[in-house]
Amino acid sequence: MRNRLQLDTPSNQFRLLQFKAGCDVSPTKVRRLGLLSLILAFGVVAIGPEFWGAIQSLAWADDSGGSSAVTGSTVHSAAIWPRFRGPNGRGEVDGLNPPRDWSSVACLWERELPGVGHSSPVIWGDRIFVTAAVQEDATQILRCYRRSDGTLLWERQYRSVFHRQHPFNCFASSTPALDAGRLFWAWASPEQLTLVALTQEDGQELWRRDLGPFVSQHGFGASPIVYGDMVILPNEQDGESWVIAVDVASGQTRWTSPRRSEKAAYATPCVLEIGSSPARLVLASWAHGLYCLDMETGQQLWEMPVLRYRVVASPVICAGTIFASCGEGGVGRQMFAFRLNPLGTSESPEIAYQVADAIPYVPTAVCRDRLIFLWSDRGIVSCLDAPTGKVLWRERAGGEFFASPIRIADQVCNISRRGEFVAVAALPKFHLIGQRKFEEGSHATPAVVDGVMYLRTFSRLYALDLKGGSAGTKTP
Known about the structure:
Blueprint: E1 4-5, H1 10-21, H2 27-40, E2 45-46, H3 49-59, E3 80-81, E4 92-93, E5 106-112, E6 122-124, E7 127-133, E8 140-146, E9 152-158, E10 177-178, E11 182-188, E12 193-199, E13 205-210, E14 225-227, E15 230-235, E16 241-247, E17 253-259, E18 270-272, E19 280-285, E20 289-294, E21 300-304, E22 316-318, E23 321-328, E24 331-339, E25 350-354, E26 366-368, E27 371-375, E28 380-385, E29 391-396, E30 406-408, E31 411-415, E32 420-425, E33 432-437, E34 447-449, E35 452-456, E36 460-465
Parallel strand pairs: 4-30
Antiparallel strand pairs: 1-2, 3-6, 5-36, 6-7, 7-8, 8-9, 10-11, 11-12, 12-13, 14-15, 15-16, 16-17, 18-19, 19-20, 20-21, 22-23, 23-24, 24-25, 26-27, 27-28, 28-29, 30-31, 31-32, 32-33, 34-35, 35-36
Helix pairs in contact: 1-2
């Protein structure tokens, strides 16, 4: 029955509590959930959006006020930003007191890159990795810098093939992924999709895969992720499409999940974990809508085929809800909120609501507790209550955006195609905190570790100190 959860068994009640608490059930949370269990102990509960939201306000916040919702990501140290938008693609950083005057934030170092790129920097320990490409011949370039001082440690180049692509794309749009000692990097031409593994220490090639042709009028852009001992790459194109998982050590195929083809998609996967249920892979495309794969086999568990346009933004999990969007012509056309089934990751979600206005097409949303922040391509920022869809505010930040916002504690930040960096309050009431102008634009998402933001523009890489002052330092 729609909007009703059968909770007449202790095991199902316990699984719901696991779902609401995530993996970390603190004593405070247990007390909150004790209230929840009393509410649910009467058997069958009809749950509408308002009731669901009230329950989440009790069960979702952790003791520090941060988010401990179902995220699917393993806990990472403060010095790791291992993939597009950081751990599990959430784009969230807590434990910092970000600046209020962004114009005076100190630039610790700045480096010119050997080409153009839209990919985002990734970090492991004191190494930061960033890709670029020579636009004249599509040569692929990967650089590794020492994060603490910007020293170039090594560079690796690969030949590729120049080809036509969307004028807003470039030949270095895919963000690498990392594990403890390796880097996984993908790029494509119409003739060949390449996935390569390199050592982080010195850039030596460990293995390389030719994954066949990549057909798309817009070019390539999806990014790999690492989960356990697998690197997973979506290949949803105009030609034969699939998602592949390969062994991180050998590059051998672990599984391939064939996909229907309906325009190339560029979403990067996220991992869904609900309590003790097995981890699942969540992705989105025009052909399948929002869908879920078994992490160990690649078998499809469910799909919600409601997206009718090209998918560029990645799915985001926020307060028991998954958000997925699509669009065309430079604007978002559809965005759905899918309410997760609390009884397990194998159960398909239901459509909670559809976002009506200011829908992001390229930028991926970002979350804070039960608030979801949508940053549209045309610079309109919206704050919604994630479980219910209630619009708390919607304001124009200005500019045009292809980069995805990140949340740094109580601020949501993004950088425009012309280099306009904007920070707004991550609160239920709108407040413009600050702005800063860079010398050129960006389509990339910043990485934040150890109180430093690493921001990549088209051809430069900056390290910005979010902890200290600006006296005697260079301001870009």
